[in-house]
Write a structure and sequence with these properties.
Layout: E1 4-6, H1 7-14, H2 18-26, E2 34-35, E3 42-45, H3 48-60, H4 65-74, H5 82-122, E4 128-132, E5 135-144, H6 149-160, E6 169-172, E7 182-189, E8 200-204, E9 207-215, H7 222-234, E10 239-249, E11 263-270
Antiparallel strand pairs: 1-3, 2-3, 4-9, 5-7, 5-8, 6-7, 6-10, 9-11, 10-11
Length: about 280
Amino acid sequence: MADMFSIGEFSKVTGLTIKSLRFYHEQGVLTPSRVEAGSGYRYYSESQIDTARVIAQLRELDFSVADVREILSNHSDDADIVERLKSQRAVIKERMKKDRDIAGLLDQIIVHETEATKTMSQTNYAVEEKNVDPCLIASIRMKGAYSECGKGFAKIGRRLGRFINGKPMLLHHDTEYKEGDANFEACMPVKKGESNDEITVKELPGGRVLSLMHLGPYEEIGRSYEKIMKHAKAQSLNYDVPTREIYHKGPGMIFKGNPKKYLTEIVFLISDDVS
């Protein structure tokens, strides 16, 4: 068998691992020229070297084993499989787009959680007076239970996800707490976007605000509202409706998380009205 290669020798010549050669044999893609009946040793001929290299190239182009088997059975020239190559290119481009979308989503989660952790470590949970800049938001006006806001965020995300550049927030238009008939807007800061029948893209005014971080479950946020309202009264400050809640840390995109670690910023826009 001077003109034959053992599986180990053939592996070195072709660059295919022994494991791969055994697999391709089992799949009917590359059958050895000879298999010893007793030992099961596989031997390959010199003429199979080119076939092995074609297999390696097709696999490098991400063709499936079934595709490779079909191509080897019916074609022998690159020109014969141009349409197959075009189809494979389309599949790979679609996969790349999906991978980019996944990478973008991973970036959002990483940035959001990193910033939330940083904010939590730097917060003293005292009422703060500060200036905020105007920002562009995408908003959905809603009436009902506050717990329904997630549906609004999801709709904005589906339509304008690639333009979102900030944390979700609610704008509260009621001057009192309402259990199931609340009037609010689910909002996301965006770089750009256009309004449609359901989503309004507009500028959220900036100005001087009172800000207070609330650490803990949403059900306990009332005590933080009491704190910021007492501060406003003590300083003789009026504030405009809608008030804002910015969600620095809440239920994650993967895990619900620990409500005790939810971090919500309550923001009151200070009014120029001194009445």
